Amino acid sequence: MEDNEISYSKEEEQTSLLPFLEEEEKEDKAGQCSNVEEHWEEYKLEEELAGGGKMGNKDTSEGVGDKYDSSMESLEHYLGDVNNVQAVKYTDRVCVLTLQRNLKELNDIAKEKELVVQKVRDKLSTCQLRIKMLAKQLDCVDIEIEKEEEAGNVAALSRLQAMHRRLCTELEKEKDFELKIGLTLKENMLEMWQIETEQGKYEILLEQLKKDQEELEMQYQERAEVRIWKEKIAALQAEENRRSREKKEEESRKEYEERHKKILEDAKRNHEKAVCFLRKSIARIHEKNAKEEAKNQEHMERRIQAVLSLKNSITSNREKLQTLQVWNKAMAFEAKKQEMKMREAILAEGGNVAKEIFLHKRLLEHEKQKQASRELQKSRKIEIVSQILQEKASLYKQKKSQSCTKAIKGGGKLDDSLRWRMKTWQYIEKTWKHSAGAISQSWWSRTACSSADVRTASVGEISEKIPHDVLCESGEDEKGRDDTLVEPEFPGLWSQECDLHKISKEEMGPNQLATRVVTEEIFEKKKEELQTGIFQKQIGSGHERKGCTFYSKPSCIHFKDFDVGQIYKKKIVLINASYSVNFCRLVGVSEWLKDFISIRFDPPGKMSAGMSCEVVVTFKPMINETLEGEVMFMAQTGSFSVPLKCTAKRCILALDKELIDFGSHVVGETISRTINLTNSGALGTRFKVQTSAGDSSTCRATAKSSGRMVTRHFSDCVPEQKVSNSPVTSVVEKKEQICPDHSEEVTYCVAQVEQQRTETSLSSSSTEQLGQDVLNSRSDVGTDNAHNLVELSPEETPVEIMLGKVTEGEIGPFSSVKLQIIFIPAIPGDVRAQFVIMFDNSDCKPLCFSAIGVSIDVPVWVPNPNIDLKICMYDQLYQDCIVIQSRAKATLCLKFEVCKELSKHMELLPKTGYIQAQSSFSVQLKFLPRHSLPKDAGSYFNEETRVLEVPVTILIVDKAKKVNITVHAIVTTSDLEISPAQINFGYCTVYEAVQTNVTLTNKSILPQEFGFVRLPEFVEIQPNDGIGILLPLESLTLDVIFKADKAKEYSFELTCKSEINRQFKLSCKAVGVHPPLELSHSLVQFAATALNGVSTAKLYVMNSHASVNHFTHAVPRIGNGEVAPVVPTSFEFCVPEDCPVTITPSVGTVLPGKKSLIQVSFRPTLSDQLIREEAVRRLCRAAATGAEIQKRKKDEKREGKKLSISITRQQSCRQLVRDGSSKYLTSLYSSEQPQSKDLKPDSDAYMAAQAFLMRNFSGRFEKFIIPCFVASGQIDEKKGSENLSCSPYNTLYLELHCPAVAPSVVITSDNGKNTVNFGDVAVGHRMIKRITIQNISPEKLELGFSVLNPNGPFLLVRPVGMLEAGENKALIVSFCPNENKWFCETLDIRTAKTNLTLSITGHGVMPSTVCSVEEVLDMGYVIAREKVTSTFKIQNTSTLTLQYSVQLDSLSSTRDKDQQSLPSFITSSLQRTEFVGTQNYNGLSVFSIFPTEGEIVAGKSQDFIVTFSPDHESLYYSDRLKFVLFGKKIAHVIHLKGAARDHPMFVEGGVPLDVPIESLAVTLPTSSQKALKAELQEPVKSILLMLDYIEGESSPVPAVTELKVGAIKTAQFASKKNMEFSFDSLPLLQQKGFTIESVKGTIEPGQVKCISVSWVPPADFRADDPLLVTALLTLKGDIKESYRILFMAKVVSAYAPTK
């Protein structure tokens, strides 16, 4: 074992040295390169210093080049030297390390050998002590042998001789063992001396090793100096770069200032010119606003009239509704009267009122149902017929539009799909002969199905107001083209139940009617019972589940865009969503889908809740039509179905807009717009764009009074289209078709227009105006105030709005086409044109759109009448060029005016100009917004939106015409706001940086660049060094970091500049502090540490303040205050309570010029509150689940008992059960919900939650800042730091970065506890525990273990080497305490990344017990062949549960072997060691104990019952009881004694004269013994009473002894009388001086009589001759017994020596 440990340490040292050597080699190589770089940097620095910083001189550069060549040669030579030197150094270093390792191994071997020698010496001393002890025992035995030889005791002599031989043998063995130990000791001493000799040889090498180590330290110091020199060179280079950068910034700033001055001068000049133009523009805007206000007023009046008419309509409808309500009340009152009359009539006849009233009501309801059924059948019949006619018409249109070949294919496909329709139509002919005559031959011209669309809400609302016949004729015609005849094909036919035994109510009397009602009720009950027997209800948690029990994914089987002849497959998943086990089987598909759909479904059998199965649906289309149906299934709880839909390819066409507004344009211009036609379907088609019918080109109408334009009605434009896409058009069409009453037309249409306008949210004002004009024209047709419309003929009206190049073409699937619309204004006024897009596909409806525009007749026009200056800032100049075009044939004089309000801010240059004939003229627009713009602009400027609209007018001299243009701009500020405006950093030490946040806000709606310039060296702004871009109205938080370079008071300003060179100031204040102490590291970054793991870092607290001279070095002080004294300085780290960081020591004192080592440990753990919350959640979830399962079982039992109860009572009971169950669950959940505070950390719930959170731990990163308070003076050990006063400004701060990760290995056993507690274990006993660990990382792990104390009680029995990902393995740890105390050790399970620490604890306990019986348990006298019991108690006084067993010597396995020696009765009573006395003849044990084995809990006691059952008479029954703990230690030994008698009489006392141990002689049977006793009338027993009289005392006391006479209480002799006893020879006894207290008497059963005997020597007594007197004691009971009592008396001197 020792050798293995030594080899293990060697391997560990080698593996630990390898990374060190590799690191050294890398440092050597890096040192070589760094030396080269350092020489090169030194060379460059010398050149820069020699050149005086003149980098641009050519001569200098040439000189540098020459020196560079020579320096490179020297560097190459130096590199070779360095390589040689470093190679030698590396080999020396390896030799030093090897030597050090060898010396260490030699020292370890020497220590081990010393330990072995010490152990051998201990053994030798122990052996020698044993030899001495055996020699003493041998001497004692020799002496005893001599004594026994003199006494003549043969038995004892033989025993002593055997003992003598055994001791001699042991003594010889011990001496042999002593010789062996001596030889071993000599060998080990020799080896130890050899090792010491070897150590002496290595003394010289040890000295050499010390020298080599000193050389290594020197090399490390040289490397540190080289690195410092390298850092200085880098600092100089950085300083040079900073200077050059500042110089460039200064030059760019000067250039920018010059350019800015020029821009300001130009802006001032242009501002004056722009003012006048701005005033004119504002005047024009005012005029335009006035006109628009007048138009809005007229529009509002028209809307008010429409609302008034709507109000009147609502009032009339309300009156009708009130009338209807009054009529209903009157009818109800009349019905009550009729009921009262019926009651009186029935009472008069003597009938049952309740029964007759009930039957009458049932009869009325039945009649109503029949009437409703007839009406429903009639309406459905009409619908079926109308649908057949519509399908015939649509099929006729399709055949006409398609080619002959397509028609033949389509007809062939339709024949297969219409077979079932033929049968349906024949059924209709037979059933409805009176209404099917006109349509009997039209069944076979119908199509399979058409597109399924629902009618619009407006049609449904209008249809409620018209008669039913009109609805059937007109509404159904509209619906026919869009509705699809899906399941059922003829609704209503198959749902009607035909009663073949129906009897008319005239032929039926009251009794028959009642009988029929009762029969129907019984039928319904039977039907419901049958239904409940087939389908089981879904009951879970006391609630019945409603709805489908299986869910399908997807919920609908949809085959999209299929092609005829192809095969399509889809897979769906059926999930059992019920509360219990269920099954599912396929019923089929819809009747009309059987030719196209096939299902492949393998029934899975019984499925548990949440399980799923798959269904494969195959679709083989034969016809190119849309199909709908369902796939039907049957479950244990009822039937369900999955919808199935097959959609053919079709065209879905739409326009992106329906109105194109060109706006206002001058005559002669050409404007183009586009509109997109999109096909979102999978089928392409051909399209053609043309003008609307009745309006070949454009429509124009001008009103005489106001010039308002009114177009034709859409119903005239598109006569074939019945449903328009425009909301206004659809309302007008439906009104013309349906509403015959003109008085209600306006009200209804206005309401519809408002509703449609709200839904569609049209933003175009022209569309609203158009719709309002249409309504007004329709409502004012019959009035005298109608406008006179002027329409131009197509020959006179030029085509102004026309189509582009693309007027027809092919649009493919999922594609779009752009259509161009061109507007060429020719005549001044409003222009409108409508276009229709027609498609070859008959299913595609034509699409309409319109275009409007305004033509203006002015000789001068502006191509861009709206000038947008975008976003402008205050005090910035913006310019733009306005181009003016002239179509006149002469030169015109133009004047440019701006409104007066904006003349200070905007200017047009030149103010007057001449434009040549048919040419252009450019005007310069200058805009310089001032801060007074909001006040000056007035209504032209919106302060909320910051939008400026400036009207600019172009006047034509000598003409009244003018051109208005508008200048738009959004004016914003360029301010940047810094909040707060002043920063006070407070007190900041020179070892830390203080950070504060400022908010920089961009008040502009333009992005602005910013930057903090000319920052001091001790200030830093992040992010991006205080440079960036702010988006509009964005606020950016900046971190201002201040780091004091020395102790003083700071006051400075930070400057922020924007991109337009505006400056914003930020004032700052701070006080620099130099503390007396400093930390070697202010930031500690721990490695990623696993939960419950430990990471440690070391740092120093240094006191470098050794002098108060502030000229030589920086001294500690606060600001400009006094210098701190040079005294010992104390520190204290204050760690927060919940921080997983430990700092040791946390308090200490550092002397001047010294430093103190600090160790920081990071132990990540899970939050206690988080674990408690998770534990509560898990407990609540488990409690809710258990309560739900328990309640479900109770509900199932309760439902089984209620099957025989009636339906009404069953429903009420179920309701009560549901309410009760919900209340029960609520109360149970609320009552059993545990509190997080009640959970104990050692509870199973707590540990399970901790293990769950540890497994799902995703990692966290925490940052802690630990303050370190500093005070001058030394800490008193008694008072602590109370006597010291510390300044808060000298506080140091230690920042810790603590990343925590999930462990790679976790413990899965014992709820994931990281503590193995063996608990209380008896000393000397071993307990084994198994700990299961699991690899929760995704990679394979190699495990290592720390070494446990080899002399400790813990032992790692079976370690684990490798763990696969997710694998579980068990560690076996044993605990064997050798002392009575607590033991604690830690076992580290090491992986490549993290460590898992396992705490092992155990308590060694010395077991202790207390017995109620000390040494002897006497069972007393018992009648032979009877039993008596006695109880004693053993209490466990230790803290350990004790395992015990009770052993009897009579039942010992070695008793037979012990009996081979001489019988014990041969030896004297003093030398007997046999405790087993007389035994039963039957072979059974005399004494029995219960229990014989078990456990005694700590602090508890155990009662033991001893049973004494002798089978023959004997006074010497005995045995020895041993109480053994853990099968090893004997805790208590109790001697068991008892006596048995054949008769219930006994005498006890004195010295027995018979043999106490029975001999091997064969005893006679009991009968022969009795006969023998009868013949011999001699005393059966003799008892010796010895009395010693003490002579010489002042007051002599007679010698006294006792004799006990007793009677045994037993059921066997219950009828016998009391026992009598009497003494004979009394005179002789009295003569000899003996006095007996009771000479005769009686004894009751169960009592013992003590007879006292005293003796006083008579006068003639001789002291040298003992007195012996015999008396006879007679006992009379069931028999008569006699005892010979021998009274022996003697006189003893009080002064005689006692042995």
What does this structure look like?
With 1699 residues, the chain is an alpha+beta fold. It is built from 21 helices and 78 strands. The strands form 18 sheets. Strands 21, 23, 25, 27, 28 and 29 form a 6-stranded mixed beta sheet that branches. A hairpin with a 4-residue loop joins strand 58 and strand 59. Helix 13 runs antiparallel to helix 14. The protein is flat, with a radius of gyration of 61 Å. It starts with a helix and ends in a 6-residue tail after the last strand. Residues 1-88, 403-417, 433-508, 530-534, 695-795, 1204-1232 and 1559-1578 have low confidence and may be disordered.
Topology (elements, then pairings):
Blueprint: H1 2-51, H2 58-151, H3 154-201, H4 203-349, H5 353-401, H6 404-417, H7 419-431, H8 457-463, H9 468-480, H10 510-534, E1 539-540, E2 543-544, E3 550-553, E4 557-562, E5 568-576, E6 584-589, E7 597-600, E8 612-619, E9 627-635, E10 638-648, E11 653-655, E12 659-666, E13 671-679, E14 685-691, H11 714-717, H12 727-738, H13 745-760, H14 765-779, E15 801-803, E16 808-811, E17 815-823, E18 829-839, E19 847-856, E20 860-861, E21 866-873, E22 878-886, E23 892-899, E24 906-909, E25 912-915, E26 920-927, H15 933-937, E27 941-942, E28 947-956, E29 962-972, E30 976-979, E31 982-989, E32 994-1002, E33 1008-1013, E34 1019-1022, E35 1027-1030, E36 1035-1042, E37 1049-1058, E38 1063-1074, E39 1078-1079, E40 1083-1085, E41 1089-1090, E42 1095-1102, E43 1117-1118, E44 1129-1133, E45 1141-1144, E46 1147-1150, E47 1155-1162, H16 1168-1201, H17 1207-1232, H18 1244-1255, E48 1260-1272, E49 1292-1301, E50 1305-1307, E51 1315-1322, E52 1327-1335, E53 1341-1342, E54 1344-1345, E55 1354-1358, E56 1362-1363, E57 1368-1375, E58 1382-1390, E59 1395-1405, E60 1409-1411, E61 1416-1423, E62 1428-1436, ...
Parallel strand pairs: 4-10, 12-19, 21-29, 31-38, 40-49, 41-49, 51-59, 61-68, 71-78
Antiparallel strand pairs: 1-2, 3-5, 5-8, 6-9, 7-8, 9-10, 11-13, 13-17, 14-16, 14-18, 15-17, 18-19, 20-22, 22-26, 23-25, 23-28, 24-26, 27-28, 28-29, 30-32, 32-36, 33-35, 33-37, 34-36, 37-38, 38-43, 39-42, 42-47, 44-46, 44-48, 45-47, 48-49, 50-52, 52-57, 53-56, 54-58, 55-57, 58-59, 60-62, 62-66, ...
